[in-house]
Amino acid sequence: MNVPNNELLASFRSSGPCECCGRQCSMRAAHHIFPRGSGRVDWGPNLIALGWDYPGCICHVGHHYSGKPTKAEFLAITSKREGWTVQFIESVIMAVRACPWQATFEQAENWLLSHFADKVVAEAAIAIVKRNYE
User: Fold this and answer.
1) Predicted pLDDT at 55
2) Where are the domains of the chain?
3) DSSP of 69-122, one letter per residue?
4) Per residue in 25-70, pLDDT tens?
């Protein structure tokens, strides 16, 4: 399921420090830790603001061309920022992405509750999915 949130993306794109290296940047990219191609989930823990100011900060470009910094490093940063474990963040994102694409909100909610034993994960996923129907 896709969960777009352009307002949230804009907040990650504003000027400020790169969340990976800490350098001040006039341009940052809202990088999806779990790529958009398998289901776009614009949710804070799935996003990291990476510098795009060459030559000052190349964290975003570096990740796409060399794999460094790594996805694991990004998850550690967002885990600390959000106060949640990496496992919880991964579980919620996977739940949202697995949700049926053409479902009504009620169908999506019922599907998540019936397919995930961890009700905290299911409820977090429901809260994210709900934004699509508001």
Assistant:
1) 73
2) 6-133
3) S-HHHHHHHHHHHHT--HHHHHHHHHHHHHS-TT--HHHHHHHHHHH-S-HHHH
4) 988 999 999 988 778 899 999 999 999 877 788 899 888 888 889 9
Mapping DSSP to helix (H, G, I), strand (E, B) and coil, where does residue 4 land? coil
- Cα–Cα dist 3/42, whole Å: 6
Which residues lie below 8 Å from residue 71, measured CB to CB, with a gap of 6+? 33
- If residue 125 lies in a helix (H) or strand (E), which one and from where to where? helix 119-130
Q: How many CA atoms lie within 13 A of 19 on its CB side?
A: 29
In terms of Cβ atoms closer than 10 Å to its own Cβ (0-12, 13-18, 19+), residue 124 is buried
